[in-house]
Amino acid sequence: MRAYFLKSPEMQLELGDAPVPQPKPGQHLVRVRAAGLNRGELLRHGLTKPGPAKVGGTEGAGELPSGERVMGRLPGSFAEYALMDAEDAIPVPANLSWEEAAATPLTFLVVYDMLVQQGRLRKDEWLLVTGISAGVGVAALLAAKAIGAMVIGTSGSRDKLEKLKNLNLDVGIATRTPDFHDAVLKATGGKGVNLVVNNVGGSVFAECVKSLGYEGRLATVGYVDGVMKGEMDIEALHSKRLTLFGVSNKMRNAAQRSVTVEGFKRDWLPLFASGKLKPLIDRVYDFKDLPAAKERMEADAHVGKLVVRI
Predict the structure, then answer these.
(1) How far apart are CA 207 and CA 103, in angstroms?
(2) Helix, strand, coil: what percent of the chain each, to 5?
(3) Which residues of the chain carry a pLDDT beneath 70?
(4) How far apart, in whole angstroms, are the C-alpha atoms of residue 25 and residue 186?
(5) What Cα–Cα distance (Å) separates residue 247 from each residue in 76, 106, 181, 197, 273?
(6) Is the CATH number 3.40.50.720 carried by domain 2-104+252-309?
């Protein structure tokens, strides 16, 4: 079968041939129809360990031998066939295309973890998302609006913020620096936000804490700035009764992931089936053009998810 191999630490993609993988008990063989691209795998963020080249890809959608359409965590999805653990399989609603299905699993599972399982976001609460134009940021916006929350987003691009206003972004703050908490307080009537999703990293950590209101929650999910440390205001943590937590899909075991998958299927899959929630796809590439899709991700030119059609 055709497959793209990912070389680490160079993080380069190379097209080659690989044997069709053979499923073990508890696994499905999936005929891959589309796969989503994820920054954490393809860029140098330390999530891909150095070692021999391996088939790339972490999520996708395709068909089981029975013909059933599934989406989910799918290691090796940059290939014609890949193996999916049975507990990771999510049925694809009839109204989703292969590309939309491939753009859904990891991003929205992470967002479900942040907004529902740990973040406890409710209707009419305020959410702040730093670096909102990336895949997780856009998914957080879409899901929060489906819940009925209000959303503030930061981005270094005014053009990207304007595009997201079409998705009902309530407040857009054009900045790449930690200078947004005054605007956040103004938008929230001086109260601060209930939940922050920090996609950027340590350089804005202290500003995120400043932006939180009483009993606010701060989710750290990315560090595109490469800054792995941030100053902690202990007095604010204490007096405002804050909750700080991290989110990572890759660094969890199968049992932990399955809890999120089951919650997603119960709470959010009906939203996708009804059309109330669907992923925003920036661009779809043919399989042969996967390296060009990676280049677009590296250039930070996208708004939403990048998908390759296989």
Answers:
(1) 30
(2) 35, 30, 40
(3) 44-50
(4) 55
(5) 22, 12, 23, 10, 26
(6) no
Residue among 36, 222, 30 at smallest CA distance from 111: 222
Bridge pairing between strands 59-63 and 69-73: antiparallel
Alpha-carbon gap, residue 103 to 192, rounded angstroms: 32
Q: Which of 100, 95, 117, 99 is nearest to 256 (CA)?
A: 117
The pLDDT of residue 15 is 96
**Euclidean distance between CA atoms 71 and 65, whole angstroms:** 14
Question: Fold for domain 108-246?
Answer: Quinone Oxidoreductase; Chain A, domain 1 (3.90.180)
State the pLDDT at residue 45.
Answer: 47
Domains 2-104+252-309 and 108-246 share a fold: yes
Q: Rounded to an integer, what distance in angstroms lies between the CA atom of residue 308 and that of residue 310?
A: 6
Q: What pLDDT, on the 0 to 100 scale, is given for residue 48?
A: 52
- Alpha-carbon distances of 156 from 74, 130, 153, 163, 200, rounded to whole Å: 32, 10, 10, 13, 11
- Nearest CA among 88, 78, 79, 80 for reference residue 109: 88
**Domain coordinates in residue numbering, the chain:** 2-104+252-309, 108-246
Residues 6+ apart with CB under 8 A from 109: 73, 249, 257, 260, 261, 264
Q: What is the pLDDT of residue 50?
A: 65
Answer for the pair 3, 18: CB distance below 8 angstroms, yes or no.
Answer: yes
* Cβ neighbours of 263 (radius 10 Å): 15
- Measured between alpha carbons, how far is residue 197 from residues 68, 89, 100 in Å? 34, 26, 23
The confidence score (pLDDT) of residue 30 equals: 98
Amino acid letter at 197? Answer: V
